[in-house]
Automatic annotation (TrEMBL):
<keyword id="KW-0378">Hydrolase</keyword>
<feature type="binding site">
    <location>
        <position position="8"/>
    </location>
    <ligand>
        <name>Mg(2+)</name>
    </ligand>
</feature>
<feature type="binding site">
    <location>
        <position position="10"/>
    </location>
    <ligand>
        <name>Mg(2+)</name>
    </ligand>
</feature>
<dbReference type="GO" id="GO:0008967">
    <property type="term" value="F:phosphoglycolate phosphatase activity"/>
</dbReference>
<dbReference type="InterPro" id="IPR036412">
    <property type="entry name" value="HAD-like_sf"/>
</dbReference>
<dbReference type="Pfam" id="PF00702">
    <property type="entry name" value="Hydrolase"/>
</dbReference>
<comment type="pathway">
    <text>Organic acid metabolism; glycolate biosynthesis; glycolate from 2-phosphoglycolate: step 1/1.</text>
</comment>
<protein>
    <recommendedName>
        <fullName>Phosphoglycolate phosphatase</fullName>
        <ecNumber>3.1.3.18</ecNumber>
    </recommendedName>
</protein>
<dbReference type="InterPro" id="IPR006439">
    <property type="entry name" value="HAD-SF_hydro_IA"/>
</dbReference>
<feature type="active site" description="Nucleophile">
    <location>
        <position position="8"/>
    </location>
</feature>
<dbReference type="InterPro" id="IPR023214">
    <property type="entry name" value="HAD_sf"/>
</dbReference>
<dbReference type="InterPro" id="IPR037512">
    <property type="entry name" value="PGPase_prok"/>
</dbReference>
<comment type="similarity">
    <text>Belongs to the HAD-like hydrolase superfamily. CbbY/CbbZ/Gph/YieH family.</text>
</comment>
<keyword id="KW-0119">Carbohydrate metabolism</keyword>
<dbReference type="InterPro" id="IPR050155">
    <property type="entry name" value="HAD-like_hydrolase_sf"/>
</dbReference>
<comment type="function">
    <text>Specifically catalyzes the dephosphorylation of 2-phosphoglycolate. Is involved in the dissimilation of the intracellular 2-phosphoglycolate formed during the DNA repair of 3'-phosphoglycolate ends, a major class of DNA lesions induced by oxidative stress.</text>
</comment>
<feature type="binding site">
    <location>
        <position position="166"/>
    </location>
    <ligand>
        <name>Mg(2+)</name>
    </ligand>
</feature>
Length: 231
C-alpha cells in the first residue's frame, strides 16, 4: 500500500491570496464597494469561495448574493494563476516525497474548476493522483468525509496517509478521519489553528523527513517498537 500525502491547497501548496484578493476587489468595485487589505482576505479564506464572498459582502453591510458569487467564480477561475505561486520549497518537497514513493493528492475547499485551472496554470496538475475539491463530493472540510473520499480517489488508505494543511478545517477533518495532520505554519492559519495537529512544519523543506516520522508515530508497527495497533 503506497503512502499518501493529502495536501490542502490555499495557504499550504500555494500563496493564492494575491489572486483571491484581486478577484474580491474587482467584485467589490463592480458593486461600488470598497476593497480590502491583504490581511482581511487572509482571514476570509478557508471555507471555500461562497464563504469568502459572503464574508466580503458582510464586511460591507451586504447580504449574500448568488449573482455576486457567480461573477466572482467566473472571474477568479479565469485569473487563478496570475499572481498565485507555490510557496518556496513546495515543488522540491513534492519531488522528494514522490521520489520516496509517496502518492500525492489535493484536498481543498476551493471549487473544482478553479482548483484545476490553478494547478494546470502552475504546471502542478500532473503531480497529483487525485483532486478532491470543495464541490467534488457531498461534504467538504472540516467534514472527514472530504479527506476520505479524496484518499479513495487517489487509491490510498487511511492507515497509510497524512494530511498537510494550514487551517483548523484541515486539522479537524484529519482528526475525524483518523489521520495525523501536519500543520503548515507558513500558511494563512494563525498558530492557534494548529491545535490537535500531530506536528508543525515551519517550512516546506521539512516535509520529506517529517511525513514518514508522523505516519510512523501515528501507526506504530512491530518494527518501530509499537504495539502494532492502528487504533
Ligand atoms: O477556498 C478556500 O477558502 C480554502 O481553500 P483550501 O481548503 O485549499 O485552503
Ligand atoms: Mg488552506
Amino acid at each position: 500500500m503506497p503512502r499518501t500525502a493529502l495536501f490542502d491547497l490555499d495557504g499550504t501548496l500555494v500563496d493564492s491570496v494575491p489572486d483571491l484578493h484581486a478577484a474580491t476587489d474587482r467584485l467589490m468595485a463592480r458593486l461600488g464597494l470598497a476593497g480590502f487589505a491583504r490581511a482581511e482576505i487572509v482571514a476570509m479564506v478557508g471555507d471555500g469561495a461562497r464563504a469568502l464572498v459572503e464574508r466580503a459582502l458582510a464586511a460591507r453591510g451586504r447580504g449574500f448574493d448568488q449573482a455576486a458569487l457567480d461573477g466572482f467564480l467566473a472571474d477568479y477561475t479565469a485569473h487563478a494563476a496570475v499572481r498565485t505561486r507555490p510557496f518556496p520549497g513546495i515543488p522540491e518537497a513534492l519531488d522528494a516525497l514522490a521520489a520516496a514513493g509517496w502518492r500525492l493528492a489535493v484536498c481543498t475547499n476551493k471549487p473544482e474548476a478553479a482548483t484545476r485551472a490553478l494547478l494546470e496554470g502552475l504546471g502542478l496538475r500532473g503531480r497529483f493522483a487525485a483532486i478532491g475539491a470543495g464541490d467534488s463530493f457531498a461534504v467538504r472540510k472540516p467534514d472527514p468525509g472530504h479527506l476520505l473520499a479524496t484518499l479513495r480517489l487517489a487509491g490510498g488508505a487511511p492507515a497509510a496517509a497524512v494530511m498537510v494543511g494550514d487551517h483548523r478545517n484541515d486539522v479537524l477533518a484529519a482528526r475525524g478521519a483518523g489521520l495525523p495532520c501536519v500543520f503548515a505554519a507558513w500558511g494563512y492559519g494563525p498558530p492557534a489553528m494548529a491545535e490537535g495537529a500531530a506536528a508543525l512544519a515551519r517550512r516546506p523543506d521539512e516535509l520529506p523527513a517529517l511525513l514518514p516520522r508522523v505516519l510512523a508515530a501515528a501507526r506504530p508497527g512491530p518494527r518501530d517498537g509499537g504495539s502494532g495497533a492502528t487504533r
